[in-house]
Design brief:
The chain is mainly α and 203 residues long. Helix content is 77%, strand content 0%. It is elongated and about 80 Å long.
């Protein structure tokens, strides 16, 4: 923790090696991620290389190398290729399933609020979010958006950690404005009759 009331960005990001990379405390790891993602973006976007062909060719090369390595090792009495036995633990599968369970239930809850309850606020939030994603996606393809996401991940947390006090001041002002707008929008939305209100009136 730094100053009183200041949130540790490192702790907020999990405090592990990923946080070290995103905050450039591990400059080697951050550099590898940045250079690697830049090379891949240039290879697929500017070079015109196909992602599926790239993966298939690399796997083909790896399988051929491992096959001839194993054959030559048995003939020359050399050690076999050091391939680790990968075994996904049941615990990791359960953790992933629990995460998926939460996200799927949340999506179904939002769908229920829109379709059954007639929640206009949820409808507006979902429609505006999907429209924004579609609008931004029309300017870039999927790989470029992933590359932009990597660049933002390597820059935004680092800059926020350096200038947190100044950014927090601006965010507090923006939060007050958004809170006022949302409160006024809620007043307007409450005037719109929903399916729940109609059922209550009929009862």
């Amino acid at each position: 923790m730094g100053d009183f009331g200041r949130i540790s960005v490192h702790d907020a990001l999990g405090g592990g090696p990923v946080a070290d990379i995103l905050l450039w405390r591990n400059s080697y790891g951050g550099g590898v991620v940045l250079i690697g993602s830049t090379i891949l973006w240039f290879l697929f976007e500017r070079g015109g290389y196909n992602v599926l062909a790239f993966i298939a060719n690399n796997l083909l090369l790896l399988v051929v190398i491992l096959f001839f390595w194993a054959k030559s090792a048995s003939l020359l009495n050399r050690p076999l290729p050091p391939i680790p036995e990968l075994d996904i633990s049941e615990e990791s599968v359960l953790i992933a399933a629990d995460e998926m369970h939460v996200w799927v239930n949340h999506a179904f809850l939002i769908a229920h609020e829109i379709a059954v309850d007639g929640n206009v606020k949820a409808l507006i939030l979902v429609v505006s979010s999907l429209w924004l994603i579609s609008y931004i996606g029309s300017f870039f393809n999927f790989l470029t958006m992933i590359y932009i996401g990597v660049l933002l991940s390597l820059s935004v947390p680092f800059l926020y950690d350096k200038f947190q006090a100044q950014v927090d001041e601006k965010l507090i002002v923006a939060h007050k404005i958004v809170h006022t707008v949302v409160r006024q929008a809620d007043i307007v939305l409450q005037m719109i009759p929903t399916a729940q209100h109609k059922q209550k009136k009929n009862q």
